[in-house]
Specification:
Length: about 190
């Protein structure tokens, strides 16, 4: 067998159907689209979710759930038993250290929560965004310290000196400007 003798297996390839190439081609004139109607038009066809006028599924199903303003904060969760196993006595446990130890993903560094499952064998300095009450008691009982880091959303709000809500901050700025104008007008 030579390279030029190679052929695809019989029936594995099929010629492309060439539409609109005259009446004898088998799909001429209307090109397999039939006469008129939504599907016959260019760009035609029902939108996603459309069920021909019947109440579509996405409207038949009830609305459920809620997301807080500013979005939900997803925490990377670590238990105290894992900290005790992976970190030496007296060491500082921070989000970057947890990534290096393989306890959390790199993307989870922004919000870390320590939970109280298991026991703490030695003193550790833990820096996390949230610490459960049980974890706090166990770490402090072992002689450790806890530093609560600001969560990204709260940090942004604190940096602006405020509320975390852009709308509220705009109103506050507006109020300040109005009060400044009034003071200037009264003097």
């Amino acid at each position: 067998m030579r390279l030029e003798d190679l052929r695809p297996a019989k029936g594995s390839t099929k010629k492309r159907k060439r539409r609109g190439r005259g009446p004898s081609s088998g799909s001429g004139k209307t090109s397999g689209r039939g006469h008129k109607g939504l599907k016959a038009r260019s760009g035609g066809g029902a939108r996603p979710g459309f069920e021909g006028g019947q109440m579509p599924l996405y409207r038949r199903l009830p609305k459920r759930g809620f997301l807080p303003y500013g979005g939900k904060i997803e925490f990377a969760v670590v238990n105290v038993k894992d900290l005790s196993a992976r970190f030496a006595a007296g060491s500082v446990v921070d989000p970057d250290g947890l990534v290096e130890a393989g306890l959390i993903k790199k993307s989870g560094r922004q919000s870390v929560k320590v939970l109280g499952d298991g026991d703490v064998a030695h003193a550790l300095t833990v820096k996390a965004h949230r610490v459960s009450e049980g974890a706090k008691q166990k770490l402090e009982a072992a002689g450790g310290r806890i530093e609560v880091l600001p969560t990204p959303r709260r940090e942004a709000a604190a940096g602006k000196g405020g509320t975390g809500s852009p709308r509220r901050e705009a109103r506050a700025t507006n109020r300040e400007a109005v009060s400044t104008k009034r003071e200037a007008a009264s003097t």
